[in-house]
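Trying the structure run again after the queue cleared.
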Amino acid sequence: MSAGAAEADLSGDELEALELIRETGGIHQSDFWKELDISSRKGSRIAEKLADLGLIEREETVYDGHNTYHLEPAPRDLDFSLLMAGDMLSPFIGEEEVNHNSDAFSQWLMNLAYEE
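Done. Tokens:
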């Protein structure tokens, strides 16, 4: 099951939990349920479900002298093909200002048009 499909089946609390983990880049489970203002039992169940779906990684650790888990977002598969036109990378990558009249941009657009 893809990450997008797995996320579509999550409850509101589970989506909020996943967003918290992604925003923080990682959080200890003992802080996780407190941030969400839910019981530790419910927090554990949510974390287990997210880990089982492959949306987060859950690793045992010791934090403030207590056994807990560290929850981190799972790496996502990114689709870089959206940035490509044939074998040309988008001229927008790495540029602060894009010149829409540039030859590189025009050629990239033409490659997009000819792909379809």
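The mean pLDDT is 84. Worth checking whether this holds up in the mutant runs.
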